[in-house]
Amino acid sequence: MAKPPSSAAAAAAGGRGLAHHRTRFLLLLLAAVAASASTAGFLLRGALRDPCDARGDSAALIAASAAGSPLGFMRSKLVLLVSHELSLSGGPLLLMELAFLLRHVGSQVVWITNQRSEETNDVTYSLEHKMLSHGVQVLPARGQEAIDTARRADLVILNTAVAGKWLDPVLKDHVPEVLPKILWWIHEMRGHYFKLEYVKRLPFVAGSMIDSHTTAEYWKSRTSDRLKIQMPQTYVVHLGNSKELMEIAEDNVARRVLREHVRESLGVRSEDLLFAIINSVSRGKGQDLFLQAFYQSLQLIQQQKLKVPVMHAVVVGSDMNAQTKFETQLREFVVKNGIHDRVHFVNKTLAVAPYLAAIDVLVQNSQARGECFGRITIEAMAFKLPVLGTAAGGTTEIVVDGSTGLLHPAGKEGVSPLAKNIVRLASHAEQRVAMGKKGYDRVKERFMEHHMAERIAAVLKEVLKKSRERSHS
């Protein structure tokens, strides 16, 4: 850590001395909690820029925001967003992020949550309150107001395949009227989402939007082969990192402070190597295979008598309160193999950015067909981290094998290759740095918020055009 400024220096800076730097670090820590786009990126975005919230700022400010955004043509448009649920999972948060981007340019945005628990839910309450504070209107999923809004809307966005269950029970006779202005945003890769009851209306909507080419191809073949229906015009839109997350990733002082804080909390030294997997703990995310590979890598290092820094594995996304059988098995594996001093479990947290600042390598080990996109991957690359990922799903469209990271097969056959890749990066510091730099360059080139806004804007223009043409015909 740098020495604090002297009192004379602080006075010369008009009081902007140690107290100023402490305040700045606290703000950065707060920003890190809020700017983790994979879980709650919209929280900070709402706190920092809210030009058209429920209080109503000037028309001039809204017009200026619209003029400077690729989504500016959406000003004054009525957009209905239908989410299958409201939670801290990727799909709803992405839709909420879009809601705020649209509000920023002056769109009228209405939100409906189709599947809502009747019990009091602090998360749902907080997210709804956040939307209301931004001027997003929240309606009940059923009732005449929902029907009227869908009929009046310029655009309706269904979020995830499961949201299709909202159409017929609610709109009933009005479904054909609304279908021509629906954009269906799909994030799922799992087979159990391919049910006709969810997606039977899919061929008749204006278009579908999917987060990766791999997922789009999978949906195209699966719907045709299994469900005997055709996909509508399908647009692939890669996601992007928020400006707030990039600000933290590019601030060397903030990264150093966060790195020291997290490593101290884990009991890890500054010179040790941290390999982390950051996902909710579940079999589909592959934490078990990651730990097997990590254990194998320790054995390889010992057998080959390699000189590498002390290595640690961090599993961020734990939830022992749930007492799942899978998580119990993970912890038993660690104890059984005597690596409890090298493996650290961290509970689910909104504060992903501090862990990205603290680690040296991200492991994206999602199994089966992989991630539809995997936003944590581009967030890690923003922090100049190399990525060890499964050669499946959207990861193959983000990570350049051998350049920004290394890919390994999904499944048990990927354990040994992943172990060897761990050893490779542990043994070659210069390769870690080079891959991290190339990953950062790739993010700046194609995975920024303005890239995502531009791609979504192009899709919305097409869908609105088709909707107008169908309504006139």
Structural class: alpha/beta
CATH-defined superfamily of the largest domain: Glycogen Phosphorylase B
Largest sheet: 7 strands, parallel
Q: Could you tell me the number of beta strands?
A: 13
Radius of gyration: 24 Å
Task: Give helix % range.
Answer: 40-55%
Task: Give the C-level CATH assignment of the largest domain.
Answer: Alpha Beta
Total helical elements: 21
Q: Number of domains in the coordinates?
A: 2
Can you tell me the overall shape? globular
Strand order of the largest sheet: 3-2-1-4-5-6-7
Strand content: 5-15%
| Low-confidence runs | 1-23, 31-56
CATH topology of the largest domain: Rossmann fold
Query: Which architecture name of the largest domain does CATH use?
Result: 3-Layer(aba) Sandwich
GO molecular function, one term: glycosyltransferase activity
Protein name: Glycosyl transferase family 1 domain-containing protein
Keywords: Glycosyltransferase, Transferase
Pfam families: Glyco_trans_4_5, Glycos_transf_1
Report on this model:
Helix 3 packs parallel to helix 5 (90-104), helix 14 (287-304) packs parallel to helix 15 (325-336) and helix 14 (287-304) crosses helix 19 (415-427). Helices cover 49% and strands 13% of the residues. It is globular, with a radius of gyration of 24 Å. It is of the alpha/beta class and 473 residues long. It has 2 domains: 63-240 and 452-471, Glycogen Phosphorylase B (Rossmann fold), CATH 3.40.50; 243-446, Rossmann fold (3-Layer(aba) Sandwich). The chain has a 7-stranded parallel beta sheet, sandwiched between helices. Strands 10-9-8-11-12-13 form a 6-stranded parallel beta sheet, sandwiched between helices. Strand 12, helix 18 and strand 13 form a beta-alpha-beta unit. Keywords: Glycosyltransferase, Transferase. InterPro entries: Glyco_trans_1, Glyco_trans_4_5. One of its GO terms (molecular function) is glycosyltransferase activity.
